[in-house]
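Limitations

Structures in this collection are predictions, not experimental determinations, and the ligand pose is part of the prediction. Treat each record accordingly. The example that follows, with zinc ion as the small molecule, is included so readers can see exactly what is and is not provided: the inputs are given verbatim, and the output is the predicted complex.
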Amino acid sequence: MQDMKVLGYAAREKGEPLEPIEYEPPKIGKHDVRVRITHCGLCQTDIHGIDDYYGITTYPFVPGHEIVGSVSSVGSAVSELKEGDRVGIGWQGRSCMKCEWCSQGEEQLCEDIVSSGTWMPYGGFSSSISVDSRFAYLLPEAMPSEVAAVLMCAGVTVYSPLKSLATRDKQKIGIIGVGGLGHLGLQFAQALGYEVTAISSSPKKKKEALAFGADHFIISDDHDSLQNAMLSFDLLLCTAHGKIDWELLLGTLKKNGKFVLVGFPDVKFNSTDLVAHQLSITGSFLGSRATMQEMLSFAQEHKIKPKVELMPMAKVNEAIQTLKDNKARYRIVLFNDMGEH
Ligand SMILES: [Zn+2]
Ligand SMILES: [Zn+2]
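Predicted complex:
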């Protein structure tokens, strides 16, 4: 297995469609595992990566960081995984394990985070990947691979802030955006015992949002409903990208309320309410290794399931276009159709 070339899909330049690529499998270090990929979810961050939105992309760029597969080789110091184990891997594939943040168990804040990405040097839209075994998570046996794939990034991204920032039962939580992240956020928030409102630009999503776990549904440009919700939420979790109405949304937060960004919307707000209502606006990034483990058990226990469209990896460009057109319902997972590589 070790010497076989890896097949993948890469953007050769910024913003370009993905094309087939072949490369030597990266050597595995003593703590690493190589994983034969069966499934890889498509995340907005992959598109941002292709477009070099974060300014860290190197080309050719193989995206993909919601990975499920089976371990095919292990480094000499790996004791917790063995060949054949089914594992999930998220955005973070390694960390320095010694900086201030890694030492206190917040690996997602590692000082070396830029080179900790699973897609360095090549990501999951490929036949195999090598990562640090401490960032490859054994999956619950009964969890379908396409479900686990989505949980590895989208799942932990919404679970982590909902768990750590909204700590009282029956808090009122608003989830802005009912897409790949938001539809999971609704499920986790309900399972955590909160009173949940979905805030979406699309009235068509009401029925499904309620089925995912929302107690209430508000259309984001329905000013009357948002006015009625003034000063009502303890926390807003913003999964949306692009434009949002900051003034109206911040107005719906209770005093001392928190506005948590996990998507990347344009930022524009008036500071008056922020100061006078003691609001916090904060970001949340992935989750630690401990949070990842906890999230997987929680999702299994509460039967949290992303709604997935399965497509073969050969259709990766079609999948990207579907997500760009905002037509994914709700998360696309690509399965490996490249055979035994
Ligand atoms: Zn992601
Ligand atoms: Zn570190």
